Amino acid sequence: MPIQCNNIGCKKSAILKRPKTSDKICKECFFQSFETEIHDTIVKNNLFHPGEKVAIAASGGKDSTVLAYILKLLNDRYNYNLNLFLLSVDEGITGYRDDSLETVKKNRDDYDIPLKILSYEELYGWSMDNIVKQVGRKNNCTFCGVFRRQALDRGAAILEADCLVTGHNADDIAETILMNILRGDISRLSRCTSIITMGENSIPRCKPLKYAYEKEIVMYAYFKKLHYFSTECIYSPEAYRGYVRSFLKNLEKIRPSAIIDIIYSGENISIRDDIVLPNRGICKKCGFISSQNICKACMLLEGLNRGLPKLGISKRHKRCKFWLEQCKHILICPQGSKMTSLGRTQHMIQIKESLFNSFL
Amino acid sequence: MCSILEEDFMYEKSTISQELCKNIDVLCKKCLDNIAMIKLQKKHHYCKDCFVNIITHKFRATLGKTKLIKPDDKVLIAFTGNQSSITLLHLLKLGVNEQIHKRFKFHPVILFIDESIFWPKEKRMVDLPKIMKALKNSGFKYYITKLSSIYDNYTFQDINDVNDISCLKENESDNKLLSLFHNIQSDTSKTDFLLRLRYQIQFKIARILNYNKIFTAENTTDLSIRVLSNISLGRGLQVSFDVAVCDQKIPDIYLIRPLREITSKEIVFYNVFNKIESLAVPSIFPMMVYNSLQHETELFVYQLQEEFPSTVYSVFHIGEKLKTYAVKENMCHWCHNPILLDTSGVTCLKESMVHIMSKYNWDKPDDKDDEEITNKNFALPSLLQRIPGYENAKQRDIAEWINGEIKKDTHCGNCISNRMTQKLKQSLCYGCQHILDDMKSLDYLPIGILHETVAEFQANELRKEIEDFLL
Which domains does chain A have, with CATH numbers? Predict the structure, then answer.
């Protein structure tokens, strides 16, 4: 016997169980509640203001496809009065990105939203394929991630957008919270949950799908028959994140509300007042947001261009050692061999910074 | 790197012997003299003596840093019988018998809470006598009580009289406790509730015996698991309390964790080197909890720890860097942690989720689940009657209140009791609300827990009435 939809007023038979609440409901009621929840998230957090230009970071995957579809839908339904754009980054990964860009182009035609594509090639002079040839398969995700973050900022600046929206879903946020705890990264832990991030003179970013479960997004795309691209990147995914992901999936299996509970915990965490967090400033070289003097993207790029790809990814003391060896001939150690190891490290850092300044 | 689970001691021995062989010709990092016996965190090699010294030092340093223990203090030691608590006893015994200038000047007294009603019968027969032997051999004075004593009104004399496990006969309270846990539907909530209940009993007994300091034997590994599982239970706000050296949720009692800087691996090595016999007591009750978030987290941490040996420390230190709230007014009545009244994020989401559902959801179809929900709601008034003093002054107030509610809301009978549950919910923190949601019925809730809720509820109601006249 078919189960009746839990929402009374609707006489249809239920065809799905909502992953978030375990309610058995019909297709229409699911659409209704999913969309309304995202609408509520947008309204209650004041994500947008009328007349704004909003750039949607589109990868062609399920999250960004559903995000683009739903923003278009809500914009029409509730008269947000937004000017929507799709913004894609072409990392230059053959067999992965070129296919997914086709999906984005199809989205552009289907939803009638203009699209802007930026490539690593034109921004940095390096495609991911070339980077992998240089650095090997091990740390290439660092390059891709760092470059993409900045590429999106640059793209949004080119489009003169007021706001950049990304398709991070509840699972992603919960995963990031757990990752930051496991790595002991307190400063990221405190800011990874905010739904809207703003820098001094950078474009605000927001995550309207913050409370939407990954499973529900897939379900939504499936029932709405949305086209999305679902192949994993051909360069290996991050191993550590893999552990955390499967842990989170196990938790969700035991108690579906666990994901929301983790986000709740993350939102309520506050750091002791006496702990100093790194300041977020601006990169001296490119002017984009950075927590260091010179941002990670510039550092990585410098490394690539000088044929020293390990420059940005190895640990600080190793980097210092490396610099020390590079410039042995100009190095005059003031105290000679009597220096303590701490003094030596500080000396090395000084040298490194002066070297970097000479590059600028 | 060996992963040591407290449960199986056989496994430990094999891994330890493997590890011992591997490091046969490495010198100890500390004394640079002896051959190292163990390797910690994949890189630190120590010989037996240096290692034992380090552990003893860590323990004494942790205690010293608190600056809370004064000479002639009486301290209650919460003993559970697991590896860490045996280590704690051993360390205390050493400290009390030290040379005069290093000797501990406080007086430890052991409190053993018997949780054996959750164990299988054969295990009870074998392990309880072992624990009794350990208690008698420890050389300290000890008290014994049962988990179900949360229902009983003990006096100092009652607890003092019990000096052997055989004195604790099965009684009605045991059945109540079993029914209470039977009513909790998910393993996660069972485990969580047991943890909170343990604290409640420790506090209760400490008050009866007039102690204001309790030592618990939680180690770094336990605490980092606690941090992670609390995060996934929505108890993020409480993380800092859970790892603090001194947990002062309750103003009159200090809960101190002297083993918090020692990992479970170090504890096992310490016990092996000192030839301390393991009692093989399960850390939590065995058969029921395998489908819980806490157990999953435990497995995850142990698994990750094998590959990345700094995991436990990173997680533990995150807990240390978080703020401790000192909200006196809004305390959860079950776990004594602060309740946050926020209007952002998830709270909002929950509201809107309910909102969407209720648009369509005036009446629910009659199926089995809902029947249970209804029963649960109706259980509350009967529960109120069990509270002492209810018959007198409070009865009239509550009865009036209920009548008032009925008049206000004639829509459906459920709504009144629904609102009562709602009120109870408001006095709980986000994490404890989950436990309440998982309970089929509130019938066997200990009165102590409820009493505060009702008292507070009364106070609030009264306050509302006179609110207009308050300046």
Answer: 16-268 (3.40.50.620), 281-359 (no CATH)
The C-alpha of A278 sits at a distance from chain B's nearest C-alpha, in angstroms, of 15
Nearest-CA neighbor of B446 among B252, B197, B205, B208?
Answer: B197
Q: Tell me, yes or no, if B368 comes closer than 8 A to chain A by beta carbon.
A: no
Distance, CA of B387 to CA of B448 (rounded, Å): 9
CB contact under 8 A, A44 and B188: no
Residues of A in contact with B318 (CB under 8 A): 181, 184, 186, 189
Contact by Cβ (8 Å): B214, B310: no
Q: Which of A157, A278, A273, A168 is nearest to A217 (CA)?
A: A168
Nearest C-alpha neighbor of B460 from the set B329, B338, B327: B329
The burial class, CB within 10 Å (0-12 / 13-18 / 19+), for B462 is exposed
Q: What is the pLDDT of residues B101-122, one digit of tens each?
A: 888 889 999 998 888 787 777 7
What's the rounded mean pLDDT across residues A276-301?
A: 77
- Considering A94-103, A272-281, B299-308, B388-397, the range whose residues carry the highest mean pLDDT is B299-308
Domain with CATH 3.40.50.620 in chain B: 49-320
Over the stretch A2-34, which tens digit does the pLDDT of each residue have? 777 777 677 788 888 888 877 888 888 889 889
Q: Output the CA–CA distances (angstroms, integers) from residue A188 to A176, A241, A260, B173, B304, in the order listed.
A: 9, 16, 19, 48, 21
Cα dihedral sign, A198-A202-A203-A206: negative
Residue B176's contacts (CB-CB under 8 Å, 6 or more residues apart) are: B148, B151, B444
Residue A17, min C-alpha distance to chain B (Å): 14
Angle between helices A97-111 and A62-78 (to 10 degrees): 10
Residue A144 near residue A236 (C-beta atoms within 8 A): no
Cα–Cα dist A34/A21, whole Å = 12
**Pair of tokens at residue A96:** 């992965």
Determine phi and psi for B404, rounding to 5 degrees. Answer: -55, -45
- Nearest 10 degrees: Cα torsion B403, B406, B408, B412: 170
**What Å distances lie between residue A49 and A34, A39, A42, A52, B229, CA to CA?**
22, 13, 10, 6, 39
Residue B90 to residue A182: CA distance in whole angstroms: 32
One-letter amino acid of A206? C
Strands B38-40 and B44-46: antiparallel
Both structure tokens of B466: 């006179």
Q: Which parts of B138-219 fold into alpha helices (H)?
A: 156-161, 172-183, 187-209
A65 touches chain B (CB under 8 A): no
What residues have CB less than 8 Å from B362, skipping those under 6 apart? A8, A9
Q: What is the pLDDT of residue A341?
A: 59
3-state SS, residue A318: helix
Backbone Cα Rg of chain B: 25
Dihedral of CA atoms B417, B462, B196, A180 in degrees, nearest 10, equals 100
Average pLDDT, chain A: 82
> How sure is the predictor about A167, in pLDDT bands with cuts at 50, 70 and 90?
very high
Cβ separation B236–A247 shorter than 8 A:
no
- DSSP track, B143-154: EEEEGGGGGS--
Residue A55 forms beta bridges with which residues? A85, A164
Cβ–Cβ contacts within 10 Å for residue B386, how many? 12
Structure tokens at A274: 């006496």
Q: Which two tokens stand for residue B296?
A: 């999953």
Task: Quote the CA–CA distance of B270 and B278 in Å, as a whole number.
Answer: 12
| CATH architecture, domain defined by B49-320 | 3-Layer(aba) Sandwich (3.40)
Residue B177 near residue B115 (C-beta atoms within 8 A): no
Shortest alpha-carbon distance between residue B338 and chain A (Å): 12
A212 touches chain B (CB under 8 A): no
pLDDT score of B55: 93
| Maximum alpha-carbon separation in chain B | 84
